[in-house]
């Protein structure tokens, strides 16, 4: 399958193999982190986070055998899809790719029929992308999340709905809550501050 058969959100906002900056609020603090979408695991994603990266979410497109990623930082999570749920997704991805290729043929034509065909193809592409995201939601909600802190959130809660931004926000929030259950600030006050 080519990446051309992916939903636009994947192609435009979360390109395959790239660490994409992502932000998450936790306890009133905005934390920068990153999301990586990849075909296979790379050991570098399991390394300790440094600099201004406070969490990392790795979404693997395929599950490979007995993959046990080595994760050295409790603020890193690897999301694996359920095994064996590829046939329908593969068919949908092929149809998305074919629809995009057909759309390209009519892109420069200016007659009324071409405009109607473009509109029909655009609607069909939107439907197919929604179905693909639905398939991804099911694949990952029935899959597994491996975190560097020996605990894992429930995938069916994390991957509810069809919005990847919401998925990544929920994973990031869980990682940050696990790392910092309270504000990482100690004011050292002897008594509470009262408002007048």
Could you tell me the strand content as a percent range?
A: 15-25%
How many helical elements?
Answer: 5
Residue share in helices? Answer: 25-40%
Main beta sheet strand tally, sense and closure: 5 strands, mixed
What's the average pLDDT? 86
Task: Report the span from N to C terminus.
Answer: 64 Å
C-alpha Rg (nearest Å): 21 Å
Biggest sheet: strands side by side, in what order? 1-2-3-4-5
The number of distinct structural domains comes to: 1
Q: So what's the overall shape?
A: elongated
The sequence of SSEs as H and E is HEEEEHHEHH
Question: What multimeric state do the chains show?
Answer: single chain
Summarize the structure.
This protein is an alpha/beta fold and 196 residues long.
Task: Name the descriptors.
alpha/beta, 196 residues
Outline the structure in words:
The structure is a single chain. By secondary structure, the protein is an alpha/beta fold. It has one domain (3-179). Helix content is 39%, strand content 16%. It contains five helices and five strands. The protein has a five-stranded mixed sheet. α2 packs antiparallel against α3. It is elongated, with a radius of gyration of 21 Å. The termini are far apart.
What's the layout of helices and strands?
Layout: H1 8-13, E1 19-26, E2 29-38, E3 56-60, E4 76-80, H2 87-106, H3 112-141, E5 144-147, H4 155-158, H5 164-179
Parallel strand pairs: 2-3, 3-4
Antiparallel strand pairs: 1-2, 4-5
Helix pairs in contact: 2-3
